[in-house]
Amino acid sequence: MRGGSIRLRLLFAAAISVVAALAIAGVGLTYLFERHVERRVQVELETHMRQLIAGLTLGPDGSLAVVDSPTDPRFATPLSGLYWQVEAFAAGTLTRSRSLWDRTLDLPKDNVADGALHVHEIAGFNGVGTLVVLERRISIGDGAGRSYLVVVAINHREVEAATRDFAFDLVPSLALLAAVLVLAAFAQVVVGLRPLERLRNGLRAVVAGRASRLVADVPQEVRPLVDEINHLLDGQEKALIRARTAAADLAHGLKTPLQVLAADIRTLHDKGEETLAGGIGEVAETIRRHVERELARARAAPAIAAAAESNVATVAESVIGVVKRTPKGESLAFRLDVGRDVTAPLDSGDLAEILGNLVENASRFARTKVVVAASGTTERATITVADDGQGIAAEQRATALSRGTRLDLRGGGAGLGLAIVADIVEAYGGTFVLEDADPGLLCIVTVPRHSPLTIR
Questions:
Q1: What is the pTM of this model?
Q2: Mean pLDDT in each 10-residue stretch from start to end of the chain (456 residues)?
Q3: Are 441 and 434 in contact (CB under 8 A)?
Q4: What Rg value do the Cα atoms of the chain yield, rounded?
């Protein structure tokens, strides 16, 4: 069985084991009961034989007579299944119970010692069924005495009927026991797999960003797995830190050359080399923005600060203050519609990156105003940035958010900043959509707010 559920596998194996074990137990118990009944039947036959022997006597003419036969009424009923007969060794005369009618018991030829009991199973009348036979040789009379073979027999169907009734009574009991054992196995499986459920919840919390490590209290059999996963998470965090550090070092290393290149571009402008300066400036701007994007993606991947929480109003005021000092920002009205207690489940640096790109993009295309708003619930936080510019056509919004698209193909620098925002929001498990503000563009960022993890 490949794949599937461990719980179902264990339950299936337990059910098969329980059914097989109880089936074997049922067969064994039935066999033991049959042996017990056979022993009881033998005891019963011995009792009848003692009664029969006690009632035997010799008549005046030396013939054998049964003065007091066994009291069981079946001996008087023809072919009832319970029989007796007494056979003289020398004379060959035969005395038998009425239940034998005109039949005789066909005994095996064996040497029966005087007083010894022999037990046989012989074929029933007309070859139907079997008879359990108990025989004993006795002597009656004076010193010369005569030897007689006393035989008592019972139809084996008596044993078979008792065994069959026992089996019929046993089956419901075993079925009920099987159901109880399967339920017990189910309880054992549920309790036994509960640590794996806690482990799954812990992993889900790590993936969702609610925890950075597995801290579930698990049995020692699962502890090595938890330790290995935590070791893997440690390695992943170190690798992310190295990647973020490398991205920061790259950005810092390119900053000075880009500044020198910008100075050279201004020199070319002053010398009238507009075409050459424009081409070099375009390439430099593309390099700068790609560096900024990779730095932002490295910083946001994948949300190392598991329980981050930032005040939206504080970060937004800082971002708006910077944008206001730009040439285009000085001519715009900025409105902040955010309560002082509204927070977002984002790292403050990532929130600043999101608002910085959105507000800068909005100020670039706005005619008169930019509006920043935010609201929060126990489940999510929503941040919106709207401008009253020309907006983006519905068929071009997907392109504006696509990855790897060059800025000049998006028109006027509207795309790369939005793609950076999309990357950061995706790292936090949120959504970023563009809608028509009529007029202008409405950017909506929604980030889920995770509740504290509880492991039972």
A1: 0.51
A2: 73 91 94 92 92 84 79 90 85 81 85 81 85 88 72 90 92 93 90 81 74 74 82 82 74 73 81 81 74 64 59 92 85 90 87 89 90 90 91 78 48 59 84 88 88 36
A3: yes
A4: 50
Residue reference for tokens 């290149």: 261
**In a 10 Å sphere around its CB, with 0-12 CB exposed, 13-18 middle and 19+ buried, how is residue 239 labelled?**
exposed
DSSP secondary structure of 192-208? HHHHHHHHHHHHHHHHH
- Among candidate residues 357, 366, 437, 359, the one with its CA nearest the CA of residue 401: 357
Edge-first strand listing for the sheet containing 146-155: 94-96, 82-88, 146-155, 130-140, 117-123
Q: Is 359 helix (H, G, I), strand (E, B) or coil?
A: helix
> Residue 411's pLDDT is what?
41
What are the φ and ψ backbone dihedral angles of 161, each rounded to 5 degrees? -65, -45
Answer for the pair 300, 346: CB distance below 8 angstroms, yes or no.
Answer: no
**How far is the C-alpha of 236 from the C-alpha of 216, rounded, in Å?**
20
Q: What confidence score (pLDDT) does residue 2 get?
A: 55
SS3 374: strand
H helix or E strand, kind and range, residue 212: none
Residues pairing with 376 in the sheet:
381
Dihedral in degrees, nearest 10, Cα atoms 94, 97, 103, 104: -50
Cα 92 from chain centre: 80
HSE (side-chain half, CA atoms, 13 Å) at 29 = 16
Mind spelling out the 3-state secondary structure of 375-437?
A: EECCCEEEEEEEECCCCCCHHHHHHHHCCCCCHHHCCCCCCHHHHHHHHHHHHCCCEEEEEEC
Query: How far apart, in whole angstroms, are the C-alpha atoms of residue 102 and residue 79?
Result: 10
What pLDDT, on the 0 to 100 scale, is given for residue 173? 93
- Token pair, residue 281, equals 């400036």
Q: How many residues does the chain have?
A: 456
pLDDT of res. 416: 61
What is the CATH superfamily name and number for domain 308-456?
Histidine kinase-like ATPase, C-terminal domain (3.30.565.10)
